[in-house]
Specification:
The structure is a homohexamer.
Chain A: H1 2-10, E1 18-23, H2 28-35, E2 41-45, H3 53-63, E3 69-73, H4 79-87, E4 92-95, H5 101-109, H6 124-129, H7 134-137, E5 143-148, H8 151-155, H9 157-160, E6 168-171, H10 173-179, H11 191-206, E7 210-214, H12 221-227, E8 231-233, H13 237-252
Parallel strand pairs in A: 1-2, 1-8, 2-3, 3-4, 4-5, 5-6, 6-7, 7-8
Helix pairs in contact in A: 2-3
Chain lengths: 254, 254, 254, 254, 254, 254
Amino acid sequence: MAADLLARLKSVNRDEVYSNAWLTIPSSWTAEIMARSGFDLCTIDAQHGLMDYQTGLSMLQAIGNTKALPLIRVHDNAIPNLMKWLDAGALGLILPMIDEPEQLKQALSACYYPPAGNRSHGPTRAAFVTHPDYRYHVSGDLLIFAQIETASGLEQVEAIATVPGLKGLYVGPYDLSISIGRPKLADLSDPVLWSALVRIAAAAQKNELLLGIHTSDTSRIPDLRALGFHIFSTGSDSHLLMDSAKKLDQELRG
Amino acid sequence: MAADLLARLKSVNRDEVYSNAWLTIPSSWTAEIMARSGFDLCTIDAQHGLMDYQTGLSMLQAIGNTKALPLIRVHDNAIPNLMKWLDAGALGLILPMIDEPEQLKQALSACYYPPAGNRSHGPTRAAFVTHPDYRYHVSGDLLIFAQIETASGLEQVEAIATVPGLKGLYVGPYDLSISIGRPKLADLSDPVLWSALVRIAAAAQKNELLLGIHTSDTSRIPDLRALGFHIFSTGSDSHLLMDSAKKLDQELRG
Amino acid sequence: MAADLLARLKSVNRDEVYSNAWLTIPSSWTAEIMARSGFDLCTIDAQHGLMDYQTGLSMLQAIGNTKALPLIRVHDNAIPNLMKWLDAGALGLILPMIDEPEQLKQALSACYYPPAGNRSHGPTRAAFVTHPDYRYHVSGDLLIFAQIETASGLEQVEAIATVPGLKGLYVGPYDLSISIGRPKLADLSDPVLWSALVRIAAAAQKNELLLGIHTSDTSRIPDLRALGFHIFSTGSDSHLLMDSAKKLDQELRG
Amino acid sequence: MAADLLARLKSVNRDEVYSNAWLTIPSSWTAEIMARSGFDLCTIDAQHGLMDYQTGLSMLQAIGNTKALPLIRVHDNAIPNLMKWLDAGALGLILPMIDEPEQLKQALSACYYPPAGNRSHGPTRAAFVTHPDYRYHVSGDLLIFAQIETASGLEQVEAIATVPGLKGLYVGPYDLSISIGRPKLADLSDPVLWSALVRIAAAAQKNELLLGIHTSDTSRIPDLRALGFHIFSTGSDSHLLMDSAKKLDQELRG
Amino acid sequence: MAADLLARLKSVNRDEVYSNAWLTIPSSWTAEIMARSGFDLCTIDAQHGLMDYQTGLSMLQAIGNTKALPLIRVHDNAIPNLMKWLDAGALGLILPMIDEPEQLKQALSACYYPPAGNRSHGPTRAAFVTHPDYRYHVSGDLLIFAQIETASGLEQVEAIATVPGLKGLYVGPYDLSISIGRPKLADLSDPVLWSALVRIAAAAQKNELLLGIHTSDTSRIPDLRALGFHIFSTGSDSHLLMDSAKKLDQELRG
Amino acid sequence: MAADLLARLKSVNRDEVYSNAWLTIPSSWTAEIMARSGFDLCTIDAQHGLMDYQTGLSMLQAIGNTKALPLIRVHDNAIPNLMKWLDAGALGLILPMIDEPEQLKQALSACYYPPAGNRSHGPTRAAFVTHPDYRYHVSGDLLIFAQIETASGLEQVEAIATVPGLKGLYVGPYDLSISIGRPKLADLSDPVLWSALVRIAAAAQKNELLLGIHTSDTSRIPDLRALGFHIFSTGSDSHLLMDSAKKLDQELRG
């Protein structure tokens, strides 16, 4: 079923909105909870989340062929790391801290097989859980996002957006607001941050890229959609649990 | 700090209310989230939860460093199982499905050292994380609850409540309502279920026992407090996450 | 999809044959390999296999996302153990070493909710991955097999087969042949062992029970089908790997 | 190599002394450290230690490759539990809290195949790492010890020692001293405790049983050897590490 | 025993053929199965396999001192990664995607202690399981293979083969055939691919290097031996299990 | 409580001596043993130790808020790796093999948020277990040590010591003695090695840096204190256990 979604996402239809769960708890059970709660995408955040590869693999299995499509936000854009996650069956990657096109080209070379890239052959789990001819039927459609979250990435977003093989841009407004020197973290009412989003959205639209944001304020989703954003995540499973736990503690005290 | 709470609980002061987190996710990180969210007690539900002993141990370690007091709701009242959890550093146990006094006496014999019981000596982690003389300074104060959740347990609650070594009663209203043949699960507005709670509370009060309930309806906590209940839990970490995840998915779709 | 199979199995159609993978490797990845290799059923052998509950849970998750239906061959028929596997999402259990009806009745009481049994309420994963109303829509259809593999079990198979709530018989010919004093292990050409199978099959047919066997000799499957057997397993994942590894070692040496 | 030791132990030669490491840390690496440090036997203490089956299996694997012979001190004498450890490749078991002959007979029935007992066939790892014909060449020689550590066990030690299939007695002086009402824990200078050891040793000698003790005072080993004890353990890996860590902390402070 | 093999391999005797198991399942039990099935070498494939370091460590323990010699095919030639696997007790490494001599020199610097390289001192497990003076008696003999599997690596194979400290070449025909633009994957009947193998073999022979190949077609092993290849692997444990599972499923359906 | 120690360490008071436990066993239980044995600091040695990130996280939880302060000796100074350990709640890092100032500047950029560095925002566990405003109240005080253990690092130690954001120097005398060509490993009586320590200490004192050493000879601690060293570690938990195990084996043999 995730394969259907993969196909649908290829069309980059901005009338469709996609919810994206953000997983930081290192647990296949919480991954299964999230994957069965309705989200279109489930991103295992291997950067700021608390899992590494082995636990991430068990989470990929749990997300498995629920209807949610599993992505990895990698902690490191190094080539061997990207290949290992794709072989494990991730159907897409979010590459953090993309500063300029050359860095992205290198990372993308790890994601595609020759001649498009230099990915080494060996899709151990990927082929078994998607298609026996994964190499020819799946590997070209993987959802690779560049995360725009630094001043440098913003300055070069137009060039970044044209790198062949890129499928989408994903905004990290926390790091972006810090990096461009804004006084508040990810404040969507800050006009300087907002104009950065406008610029990034324009680059995505021009290149027919998917466009996502880890938004700090879900009330602004309509405004973000107006810019062309159509993939939304916020917070994390850890924060969902923390926040609801604190409320429950108060509730139990009467 | 949990030691302070242990001491405070000994006094069975019904003016104090205690919140109790209910852990079913097999993860030391979610255990740490729950333990740092304000709850007085954290119960690792090894019965209906998804962890076993080894993961439970890692959860005890994560709770161990907070002010929350760790309990285990065991999946089996068999003697070797109870001993193993106590040696791991649990400061209390909730014993499910207590039907009659003899069954409880047997279980309690596993919890206390001779002459009070037959617990085998070897508090490997328990002594190291509480007191070098755990045997003499901690082991007698362990919080052992009998869970009243069957028709038989209800019928014999007065006798159950007098078994030496018992520290509290804990009501499981889901199983109890089923067992006494009520049409709805854990419906606190059902007068037959409510009168069962009244009866259990009376037995606890008479024997100066702690009194808890895994309530299905937190709005009734004031009424429950009036009966003498002062330890409250509800739902579970899995349900907190599921419920908030489903809401978030809707929110992200705008 | 496994739910469809569950429904189909209810009809006890002996014209349909079901393959059953036998899992002894404690790994969610090998479980996923087996579950995606075409088998109808995947039995996690928690008795002679090398996994315990926590690893078994990860295997249930890996199987969960395929069309294969997950069973547990438990290591212990004790009530708390049976409940814990069912709460984890097993859709059936194979109960080893069933010697007589009373023992089976006790075990079955753990599998069904009141009034059919005494299963405690708390289907933490089971409800989430099958049906929100698991209690009413799934729990009654669980596939509970009694394993007939002792002289005593054979002697009382007619009575065992009539215990309410039982869904099938499963023959363990290794233990059975030993227990009835045959000189060879699981030798299907032994007429004494074969007549035991005839007797067991008759009891299953009379009570419209599913009928499976962990056969030692797949060449006899047609003969077994003629008796009414329609669920077949053999060897284990460990043995598949061992045998093919030894062959490969020889092949590589040329 | 452990197989050689198994053979040597069969002869019950009291001139040979055997050191026995006591493992409570749930880790295959510390198990490997202990197994390579010179001990003849390595006992995984699943009773008061902090491991369960899955971790214990990894410890058996780590010990498996050394000359040390792996034993399990089980936490529960229940039949399914004993079988599962033996299938995992334990070459012996120490059964705690043996109070009387009938209890021991039941436990031993789980350890031996018919006709000696009722052990279910399926030595998944045991056969692969010892002998393809494990059933005929290894399973009869397993080292099964009854632990004498209760007043009742002491009272019936002569009868316990004659139960067929028993290979040795192992004294737990902590629990024994408590159970027989001595004021100090495991005080070998206490004449009442000492005379209990004399009595146990006599029963072992008369029945040509191996004889071990988890001694609290290694300076008394010569005296214990004079009684016929020849297998010695003390403390645990956890305590070795704790004690040396505390000393090191002081040493580093100068 | 693996130490004996290490010594034998040093002589680079092409009359001896070595079988090499290829491990991609993240499990110490399947590693033990493979290591005890007769193979001379066991390669933990950390590149396309599904394990990371922690699981790989448990696999190294299971391979332990069976007679099989444990190698790691690393996922990343970065210096810290190579050191960490060697400290864990790997007796050799297969370095993927070696394109040119300088890259290899850097990687080799991580494998040998000064003055031969810059490996940091701390052979935590390596020394304990091989030789107390590992630094002087083992570390110089580690089996380090460069994997030739890119067009660039092929073009520079003569220079690569002369880098001091290199012990062998290992061909990855899948990636190699892709990288040199062949239409089929690893087709050994393709004369262009075959002539590449001839060239690589010549470089190995000239420099007295061990010579291995992950062959796609075991029927060609005699031809490969004629070129000087004497270490052979194929497929993986995952594929062995998948293939035999699919066959078994069919067999069980009759 | 660790927070108090963090504050105290900021003052760089050389009259205070700090003991530092060195953890190489991949286990949260041994980490808890070490953390509760009196040490001020607990360093998880992810370089030569046998744990990776996931196990290291469980060890950080066990060290938790005991009074010991958790450090990581990373295996790789790569930026994504440093960020991931800090997000997990490490309160300091020891960076191995620092050769020159530029390398250190890059590493430090990963440790501090803008404008001091480029650390990406997402202190998932760090914020939850220290301070909700971790970014402003904790992240600036993290204890980042450069390890001086190469000839190059020694030659440039004065420049290294002035890199902004550095909090301390830590000497690795094993690698240092090898790297500067001394005949013995870490021989503190070697005047050439000693004069290297003098030089390093002078650089630390001049820049008011903390100063630690993984000393090979604790009898020289007074002399080292005279140079300004005040943080001391030696050996490892693995070695403590190995050494005491070997002694115990001998003791048990009488």
